[in-house]
Amino acid sequence: MKQKEIRIGMIGYQFMGKAHSHAYRDLPFFFNTKIKPVQKAIAGRNESAVKEAAEKMGWESYETDWRRLVERDDIDVIDIVTPNHTHAEIAIAAAEAGKHIITEKPLALTLEEAHQMYEAVQKNGVTHMICHNYRFAPAVQFTKKLIEAGRLGRIYHFRANYLQDFIMDPQFPLVWRLKKEVSGTGALGDIGAHSIDLARFLVGEFKEVVSIMETFIKERPMGEMSSGLQAKSNNSTLGEVTVDDAALFLAKFENGALGTFEATRFAGGNRNKNKFEINGEKGSVRWDMENMNNLEVYFANDEPGLQGFRLINCTEEIHPYAGAYWPSGHIIGYEHTFIHLVHEFLNGIANNYQPEPNFKDGLKNQQVLKAVEESAELKQWVNIAEQ
Ligand code: SOE
Q1: Does any ligand 1 atom lie closer than 6 A to the CB of residue 164?
Q2: Which CATH code, of 3.40.50.720, 3.10.300.10, 3.20.20.150, 3.40.50.300, is assigned to 4-133?
């Protein structure tokens, strides 16, 4: 089979860099695709660290200045896995250089930047994607199919909790994720953005929101963390935490459904508990990332006496993406959601269509993030269309 090579240049190489590198590497192995991602080069400022990362994660070469990567004519795609405050500058430069772009979420630091990024990709006609990977779990894609087929009927409720606990220790350092000028928001944009994306994917557009946000630990010791999200600092110099530790909000959707959202990094014992439940007139579904192959489904027309949630293991050939892997019942994991995501992205490039979620989705997501922040400040409902 003749394969089309798509040459990738990735900027950054920590946690998400590892997830993306693995996805490029394993995509051709599992999916009989005509596309061959080529891990051409990565960029990072620290030469010995970026060299080591390139070798470990299978990249052919490295650069110590991301601008060099964007200029290289042996690169088709720029993959951005750097902290949020760098997304706009890199993405706009990449679009102007005619590169296709895939970026980590949230799209930008601010809504203004998100608009500029969307304009740049539109103007330069490049393919773009944002990494809301949880959409690509087979159980979530299957939920979408159930909804589209009308199996849940009219949707009444979308109930999401995204719960983590990795910063609960007061000695956890003041890393970039806790600084507004680098990350934009805290739990809201880091994990709440994923719930917002799932809601937009499965239910529809947001109309208005009302929220509360809290920062429980207002000062932390200076320090860094490893890519594994674990850290402790004994530095006696403290700095101010300028983002939310938790963001809770209610939403009304344009189609009349109601949403309940909770994004927190202070839910002890919950490492990466990304959950949702949807209740519709004809049925309900429940999903939990920590058991991501399973979907709980309830149908109101099941016969009396047998009603209740049933457990579906989404590993059958019929479940989206599942057939590319193992026989039924042989589960897949977190990393596979990224394989599906880059599969969709590279297909979009090769076959000239705009994959989803893309920068437009990132922009709409950012409108919701901004409205949630504004609502917490104003203590009132905020309309999304006014963002
Ligand atoms: C840290 O909270 C983090 O790595 C997020 O940045 C990711 O988007 C989420 O999927 C897992 O947790």
Answers
A1: yes
A2: 3.40.50.720
